[in-house]
Design goal:
Helices cover about 70% and strands about 0% of the residues. It is mainly alpha-helical.
């Protein structure tokens, strides 16, 4: 995940593009709804628009920019989702369950969940493709440093 986040950060930092305002606004709305869900504010009294857009503006702009860049890279590289990797990912997710075959079937019968998983696999494929041609530097670190969340690691450096 750290490497993936570093790739994403490099994409955003090294590619100046203008992000359509409508796309940023869509992302702000998505982030508002996500925050309300996380904090249990799904009742009738909570309207996502009550949360100020400024809270989400920077993150939404970065996310929209990253999405555009990643989609363009996938398109220009002619990447297609690897069905075998999707299958193995589903099987890996199903493994801890008592009846893993039921979980596998559930994924393949639930279009929304399957599309989300396919998108994640395609994203991983794009990161691998970017890393093939990227200039990388290996850094030795302890296990604790490796598993530390990215924000905590940045504060320590």
């Amino acid at each position: 995940n750290k490497v993936k986040n570093q790739v994403f950060e490099g994409l955003v930092k090294n590619n100046e593009i203008e992000v359509p305002k409508a796309l940023v606004n869509q992302e702000i709305d998505r982030l508002r709804k996500q925050m309300l869900q996380q904090f249990g504010g799904q009742g009738a009294n909570f309207d996502p628009s009550m949360l100020p857009a400024e809270l989400f503006s920077e993150r939404a702009t970065r996310s929209a920019k990253l999405g555009l860049l990643l989609n363009e890279f996938i398109r220009s590289s002619s990447l297609a989702v690897d069905a075998g990797r999707v299958r193995s990912t589903i099987e890996e997710l199903a493994e801890p369950f008592e009846h893993p075959e039921e979980v596998v079937n559930w994924y393949y019968q639930n279009d929304q969940q399957l599309r989300q998983l396919e998108a994640a696999v395609l994203e991983d494929q794009a990161v691998e493709k970017i890393l093939e041609s990227a200039k990388t530097t290996e850094k030795s670190c302890s296990y604790e440093e490796a598993v530390k969340p990215a924000q905590a690691a940045e504060v320590d450096e």
